[in-house]
Design goal:
mainly alpha; disordered C terminus
Length: 75
């Protein structure tokens, strides 16, 4: 994960430094890691920007975990 271009405390008092540190260091890092792992199974998708992937979600294969989560929410 690249470092933020500003300090964790830059958004205080709206968002405290500890929240930023946790979000960027753990949550955001996990999202990036998991997306890259999913895309490793589909090298053609690695060529697309994140914006293109989001605009065309129907072209992105779903994982069984994502399908289970969606089914659980819908049912």
């Amino acid at each position: 994960m690249p470092k933020l271009p500003y300090g964790f405390d830059a958004l205080e008092p709206h968002i405290d430094a500890k929240t930023m540190e946790i979000h960027h260091g753990k949550h955001h890092a996990a999202y990036v890691t998991n997306l890259n792992a999913a895309l490793d199974k589909h090298p053609d998708l690695h060529k697309k920007s994140l914006e293109d992937l989001l605009k065309n979600l129907n072209s992105v294969p779903r994982t069984s975990a994502a399908q289970s989560a969606t089914t659980a929410v819908v049912t």
